[in-house]
Amino acid sequence: xxxxxxxxxxxxxxxxxxxxxxxxxxxxMHRAELSYKAIWDERLRKYQEEKLKEEEIIVDDTQxxxxxxxxxx
Length: 73
Hints:
Layout: H1 2-72
């Protein structure tokens, strides 16, 4: 009788450990993915701002060039 209870307790521990371990692993991976996504979203935002600044500089330069060429005429 004692061996059956011991074996049953072993199964409960294994099953509960597997389930809890899976939940912990899922939670940790979920957090890692959210963190990774946040980092890449920030990098994308910075890249887009950089591109907009470059485009503004190019537009400003072309406008200045057209003004100076108009004055030279």
